[in-house]
Structure formats: structure tokens, C-alpha cells
């Protein structure tokens, strides 16, 4: 926020607060520019090689770089849209030099080759400051190095862009607007949990609200918000930061990850004492979050009293709109997803056109991958009195999932199939990311609960019946 000098409060009028008069402490050293360093004359070829690998990852929109020593060479792979692709197989003799260069850039101990290490590289690239989170791991043929790309200045997406379904978006927005309680966002690493949390924070970000976050690491910079990063070497972990937040007059708190009992209990206590707490948890779906907290040792009555809802999410690849191919799947393929051919006859399905990047027919928009970008898949469980009572009684995960479906929750598989119907992704991608026995059973149950009478013969049906016992018509 810029303050007009003429409108200075009288308290500061006689003070010279210009940058030259005030000592600057802990100023960030400007990061080296990647493109400039890669073109410098007289630098080592290995230094230029490493810079070019980083530049290629940044220009191609990769999320991770894998530098893997193999028996026949040094394999470099990039993760794009959630899938690894091979970039280059370098000569094996370059393995020590490349790994050492990466460790020097990350300020790691190059002499230590028998223990994993973690570090960070910061570089400028086309006017942006890019961070690379570096992890080394001893392997049979040398040290494997994996770099996660973090763009702290990336444009944040709002809920309207992230969540395509209006009902799910409205449910999450309503939860995020509550004055107190806890919201859990679950999913595997790289499923977009942080993006969803930042979108929620952006909607609450207001000068009248004090928002604080503790992260590992800080992935995005948000104006008007206090962000802190854990430092386990100094004993500064999530629980410690949370306790400090409680003495900072907070309104909204974000905890990067709930991974132990102390953090979980502190977060719940904050939610029970009038604060909105957003945090993440690792589990397979929304209903599994309760069992995960129970395994940590959190008392069920505390969970039922504090929890507003659980969001489970995944990311599926988005079909390239320039080269996607329309087709009509047969009854067997549809049945694999619990779909009935007669119900989907009016839907146009699409599949990816995948060819080699150097093929003359490769699409210039997606380089022959058939996919471009990713889209979120969401399963949103909103707590109600029935669910809260069942959680307090330590009901099973299956019982809780059934209650959530009865209250209108859409499963991950159901959301993904809706994206297929909209032409945004393919059945192959849904199968790769979402299709499990539990997910398929939950989706069939959700369809069954949507109707209490058979569409074929009109007979009354019970909730647990998946097909009509009179005419054998599948319930949907």
C-alpha cells in the first residue's frame, strides 16, 4: 500500500524514512538470470548444460525435473501435466559433474554422497523469480536429483476457474466464508491442494481480516497476508507456528500440512476457539479423512465439533482442443465405468491424439501429447448433523461415505465422468487417475440413491438395491 507523503501522520512528519536513510537488513541478494548465465562466454560446459535443462523445464511448463543416474547414462526427465517424459540421455561420465553442479547451486554439501539432502535454487527467468526445491537421494549408479519448480509470482486462479461445477463451487465457497471451523483439503502430492487453499484465501483476503499461513515451503506470495515457512532444524514446525499464530490476533489460518497429532490438535483447538483453519491431509478420498485423523489419535468428538467439510481432489489432463478426436465408445468400455450405453448415446466422447513430437502430424499446440494443461476433479463432503453424530460415534469409513452420498456428495469418479461428457478430458485419463473399485462402487451407489423407483417397471426400490429385482434394470 502506497502512502501519500502529504498525508503522513504527524507522528512521522519529522522523520526521514527514505530507503537511503534507513539501514536495510536481510535484503535479498538478487538472483542470477538463467538465460544470461547460459550464454556467458568462458563458463564451464556443465554449467551451461544445467542452466539449459532448467530453462527447458521452465519454457515447457514442467512441474518437476528428474536427473537420474542409470547404468547406460544420466537420464533427464520432465514432468508435464502430471506425466514424466524423457528429455535427454546424457553420457554416464557427466553424472558426477552435473549432480555436483546442482548441489552447488542449491548450497548443499557436495562431499556428502551417502545421505539425502534438501536445498533450494533461486534464479530469475524472464522477469520472474523462480525457486527450485532440490532433493538428492543416493542410488545404485549415483545420486538422483529431483527439482520441484515453484513460481512464487504465478497468477493465482480463483474458484470460478478451478471448479467447473457450480454446485461444488458454491459448497466450497460457503464453507470458506464461515467465521470459524476447519476445512480439510485432501489428495496426493501434486494434486493441486495448495492452489485450492490459496483460492480460498484470496476470497477471504480483506484489510479487515488477519490471515496467517505456515507452509513448507512458501509456494506463492500473497499480498496482505503474513506467510511463514517451517524450519525444522531450528525446531520451528507447524505446531510451533500455530501456537505463535494464536498470540497474533488471527482470523484465518492456513496450515500447509497436518501430519502429526500435535499439529492436528492445535489446529482443531484454533477452529473451536473462533478461527477459520484451512489445512491439508493425505488420504484417498473425503470419507477417509476421518479414519486418518483417528489413526493420528485425534478424538472423534473434537473432529465432529470443529470440522466444516472435507475436499478431496485430483488433477486430470485436459484434452487439447486443437487435436482431440471424437468417437463413440462401445458398451463394454462404458460398462467399465459403470455407464450404460443407452443413457450416453447422445454424448460425444473425445480421446487424445498422441503422436511422437517429431512426427509431421504432431499438433503444434500440444507437441503431439494430445493433452494441454490440467483440470481439477473435486469431491466435497459438507458436514451436517447426521454426519457429525456418526463421526462422534466412530462410524466406519463406508458408513460415513454412504451418509455423505445420501446428503448429495458427488464422488471423484462422478465428477471426472462429467468432465468427460463436457469434452474436457478422456475416459482413458479418468481410468488412469480416478477409477478404483471403491470409487466405482461409490459412484454406483450415488446413482442408485438418486431414484427410489425403477424407471423400467415403476416398482418401488430400497436404498441398498443397485438394480430392480423385478425387471433386472440397472438402477441409475
Give a description of the structure.
The chain is 31% helix and 24% strand. The protein has helices at residues 34-38, 45-59, 95-105, 159-162, 166-176, 193-204, 238-245, 261-272, 288-296, 300-306, 331-336, 385-392, 397-406, 412-421, 427-433, 437-449; strands at 32-33, 64-70, 73-80, 83-90, 117-125, 128-139, 142-151, 181-186, 211-215, 226-229, 252-255, 276-281, 307-319, 325-327, 349-351, 371-382. The model is unreliable at 1-10 and 25-29 (pLDDT under 50). It is built from 16 helices and 16 strands. Helix 2 (45-59) crosses helix 3 (95-105) and helix 12 packs antiparallel against helix 13 (397-406). The strands form 3 sheets. Strands 1-5-6-7-2-3-4 form a 7-stranded mixed sheet. Strands 10-9-11-12-8-13-16 form a 7-stranded mixed sheet, sandwiched between helices. The chain has 476 residues and is an alpha/beta fold.
Identify the notable features of this structure and list them briefly.
seven-stranded mixed β-sheet; 31% helix; disordered N terminus; 476 residues; alpha/beta
Tally the helices: 16
Q: Structural class of the helix and strand makeup?
A: alpha/beta
How can the largest sheet be summarized?
7 strands, mixed
Give average pLDDT, whole number: 87
Q: Which range does the strand content fall in?
A: 15-25%
The order of strands across the largest sheet is 1-5-6-7-2-3-4
Question: Which residues sit in consecutive blocks of at least 5 with pLDDT less than 50?
Answer: 1-10, 25-29
- Envelope shape: globular
Q: Over the alpha carbons, how many angstroms does the gyration radius reach? A: 26 Å
What gap, in angstroms, lies between the N and C termini? 55 Å
Number of strands: 16
| Percent in helix | 25-40%
